Amino acid sequence: MSKIIAFTNQKGGVGKTTSTANIGAGLARAGYKVLLVDLDPQINLTSGLGLTEAEFNVYGALLQEYKVKAYPIQDNLALIAGSPALSSFEKVKGDELDREFLLKDLLEPLLERCDYVLLDCPPALGLITLNAYACANALYIPLEAQLYATDGLEKVLEMVTRVQRRLNPTLVVGGIFFTRFDPRKVLRRETAEVVRDKYPDLVLTSTIRETIALGEAPHLGQDIFTYAPTSAGAMDYGHLVQEILTR
Ligand SMILES: Nc1ncnc2c1ncn2[C@@H]1O[C@H](COP(=O)(O)OP(=O)(O)OP(=O)(O)O)[C@@H](O)[C@H]1O
Ligand SMILES: [Mg+2]
């Protein structure tokens, strides 16, 4: 059975896209069939995986302008491209009945061919993110361990409770994990401890260290396992993939 996982945090720049790309690549290398979906109008996931010219994207498919198209990226890994036009999704679909379930309907026929569908959410809790929450089995929340990190987290958890009540009763928070972690910085260590104390069941053991190669890889359209297989980033995302597989 396939599992839909959304990477989400309304806070920007915390590692949602980096995690979607590299966890997807890690799962694909472990032999799972993985479909990635770029739901962010910034299209960082699409361009970071080397897809510069995607004629068919998730926005056009959601508007039923054409059939959904998944572009092959590597063995076991495919991508439904994003589009800058996603920024007008809310305006266009704002008063349509069942507007929260458009992504669910779109993905439904693809599920039998995938083990995992990973959704890269935008840094906002608008209609696109609601569509992701409405169809996901689990949410994973990347967090940068720094002051105010928990503000974004609490907003996401509030939203999850509302979504569970109204749209998707089986939605769970799969876990929270720290990205861009620098164990030498005391403040970061302390923030991580505070979050761990507050949400002991949700914080994962794996953390992703600040790694230069993780920032470089998308500029070459590569994942971390291809670009720098012996880097700290590859090691950390490798562990995180294993941990996600056991949850
Ligand atoms: N562990 C890391 N070490 C070093 N750089 C990182 C790491 N994780 C992410 N980055 C870099 O930080 C920036 C933000 O990361 P990313 O794009 O994954 O965040 P995001 O949450 O998707 O952002 P947005 O909210 O804008 O979509 C990117 O330039 C990325 O390459
Ligand atoms: Mg992003």
TrEMBL record:
CDD domains recorded: ParAB_family
Gene3D superfamilies, A to Z: P-loop containing nucleotide triphosphate hydrolases (3.40.50.300)
UniProt entry keywords in alphabetical sequence: Plasmid
Family annotation (Pfam families): AAA_31
AAA domain boundaries: 2-171
Family annotation (InterPro entries): AAA_dom, DNA_Partitioning_ATPase, P-loop_NTPase
UniProt cross-references to PANTHER family, sorted A to Z: COBYRINIC ACID AC-DIAMIDE SYNTHASE, P-LOOP CONTAINING NUCLEOSIDE TRIPHOSPHATE HYDROLASE
Official protein name in the record: AAA domain-containing protein
Protein species of origin: Hymenobacter swuensis DY53
